[in-house]
Amino acid sequence: MTDLPIILLAAGASSRMRGADKLLEIVDGQPLLRRQAEIARAVTTGPVLVALPAPPHARYEVISGLDVTPVPVPYASEGMNASLRRAFAALPPHTAAAMLVLADLPELTENDLRTVAQAVELKSDILIWRGATEDGKPGHPIVFAATLFPAFATLAGDGGGREVVAQAGPRVQLVPLPGQHARRDLDTPEDWAAWRAGR
């Protein structure tokens, strides 16, 4: 168990789902967003912050009753960086590092989050610890050292924090996770149907 704060990004519009909400798709018997929030809650004793579209929105109901903190993102339509600005600003003072998790990665497990968290060594010169696929492609979750937090305050657009990762240069440690857990996202109804068929 770790006390690392975890930020769950869940404010996207699911624009390619043609009216459905991918974060409400059922995975392991429950809506994906609730599954991801429960995984995060099980991994840390620290706060779990969930970036969400401005209320009212069905995603708030999905995480009701869980010990997590909703973080409304008024300008979520701007792109992922609006969520990153709000969520990192909401971290407790003196946070030494924080884990970022995308809510739409249905193959991520508790063990994956723990594996990345256990790789964190704050006394090293590493600034980012990042989950990777079994074939070495960088993905999620990502742990950022506090040195990088100020960079999130100025982000704009939909870069997804790539600008902050670039600031870390070579001071990034990839942490291998099973299969494609670190990157498998499902953006369309066809993606979901194919994934379920493959399971």
Description:
With 199 residues, this protein is α/β, with parallel strands linked by helices. The protein has one domain (6-198): Spore Coat Polysaccharide Biosynthesis Protein SpsA, Chain A, CATH 3.90.550.10. The protein has seven helices and nine strands. The chain has helices spanning 32-43, 58-62, 80-89, 110-119, 149-152, 162-167, 189-198; strands spanning 6-9, 26-27, 30-31, 48-53, 69-73, 97-102, 128-132, 138-145, 172-176. A seven-stranded mixed beta sheet has the order 5-4-1-6-8-7-9, with helices on both faces. A two-stranded antiparallel sheet has the order 2-3. β2 (26-27) and β3 form a beta hairpin. α1 (32-43) crosses α4 (110-119). The chain is globular, with a radius of gyration of 16 Å. The model has no long low-confidence stretch (mean pLDDT 93).
Which structural traits does this protein have?
alpha/beta, Spore Coat Polysaccharide Biosynthesis Protein SpsA, Chain A, 7-stranded mixed sheet, two-stranded antiparallel sheet, 9 strands, globular, transferase activity, Nucleotide-diphossugar_trans, transferase, NTP transferase domain-containing protein, magnesium
Gist of the model:
With 199 residues, the chain is α/β, with parallel strands linked by helices.
Fraction in beta strands: 15-25%
Structure summary, number of beta strands: 9
Q: Strands across the major sheet, in which order?
A: 5-4-1-6-8-7-9
Output the CATH class name: Alpha Beta
Radius of gyration: 16 Å
Termini separation: 30 Å
Written as H for each helix and E for each strand, in order along the chain, the element string is: EEEHEHEHEHEEHHEH
Oligomer: single chain
Any guess at the CATH architecture? Alpha-Beta Complex
| Helical residue percent band | 25-40%
Give the full name of the CATH homologous superfamily.
Spore Coat Polysaccharide Biosynthesis Protein SpsA, Chain A
Number of domains: 1
pLDDT < 50 runs, ≥5 residues: none
Estimate the global geometry from the Cα principal axes: globular
* Contiguous helical run count: 7
Main beta sheet: 7 strands, mixed
